[in-house]
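Subject: for your reference before the review

Hello V.,

The reviewers asked for a structural picture of the protein, and I figured it would be easier to keep everything in one thread rather than splitting it across files. Below is the amino acid sequence we used in the manuscript, unchanged from the supplementary table.
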Amino acid sequence: MDKNEIIGLIYEWQGLISKRGGIERYIEPALLSAMASKPIKIITGFRRAGKSFLAQRIAKKLVEKGDYQLDNILYLNFEDYRLVDVNTAKKLGDVYSVFLSDVAKKGRKLVLLDEIQNVTGWDKFVRTMYEKDDETKIILTGSNSELLSAEIGSNLAGRYIEFSIFPFSFKEFLEYSNVRIKTESDYFKHKPDIEKAFAEYINFGGLPETFEINSEEAKYSYLKGIITKVVLDDIVKRFGVDNVDVLERLLNYMLSNVGNTIAYTGLKNKIKTLGFEMKVETIIKYTSYFIKSFVILELNKFDWKQRRIFSASKKFFAIDTGLTSLYRPGRENFTMKLENLVFLNAKRRRPKIYYGVNERGREIDFILDVENGFFDKYQVCADLEEQNCARELGAFLLVDKYLKNGQNLILTLNNSISADILKKHNAVHANVIRWLLEV
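And here is what came back from the structure prediction:
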């Protein structure tokens, strides 16, 4: 790029930032409050989950607060085709020099580098800028945790704060549609619209670009494209995977079986029935790539008797319920998606989350480590009826022997459950939708 092209691109992005709309994301207040501190702010997350919009909204708010002049904002998105040649630390430094000499005014600067993992040696450039100028604040975004973590570990350790962003929650999805639920009366006022929106959300998920796509076929096509992009760009190219077919089969299987306890040897046998031979070591490695690309999240087993975490026993969940619909559409996997949805929302609230199984095979869907020896326990099912009460609620009584402190919560789509049944099992009931909306 020549100098005039660089200047034009900088002004273009400044103009877009000044007009950036959108709703406030759940992580925004924490990120804004951290901006006064020196450490680099890193926003990580799945592709198309809203990292770029979040970074731009933060920049706009800081300008509106008077913390920065718009001219002193440098925003570069390294998935912009015009920046394809700005792929080394040296070339990035040249762009930064043009910004300082020809665009920026006196005063503090804000530098936002979007999808920074596309620049070789970016960490050296960022560290130099960080060490040289206390007045310049830095925000980075990236879609691949491995590339970020490797470089952060070697050159930026102790110099950053990481913020992980998920696709839109159901509450954010409603706010995007101008349905704001702040109180119980808001919920009942909009209840028909909320229930209709929930059916849409659980099926197609919270990736914001799907919200403007009208046809179901087009939504599925978009989601397939995201998976293709993750597989080919975030995994195959970056990790040098040769067997793309097996990689895709493994990912498809894991996304169609979210919430199930998965053993790597079982995955090996499953792949074999599909006509492919894989070593357990390869399956473990491929699974780590899925996690590093944020397409799946892992959940470790918690032994409530010994209060120990067993990392060898795992469940996996999709980063977005829309991805699971690609492989098991409709009612076929409704309960599975409901559990996935609860997991994502619980993970937003409490990062320390596990599942539990005792020696008799009784399971608790989620155990949240709240604090100071308190553990909240969650069971999830679409409907709680007489036939499944013992199965869904019985495990609470077993857990209470070892984890006495904390709430036992049964989440269903039922609006009410017998108080006597709940008391018998020392449980509290909540409607899933209301729990998601916190009303």
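For the response letter, the relevant points are probably these. The mean pLDDT is 90. The chain has two domains: 3-165, 225-437.

Happy to draft the paragraph if you're swamped.

O.
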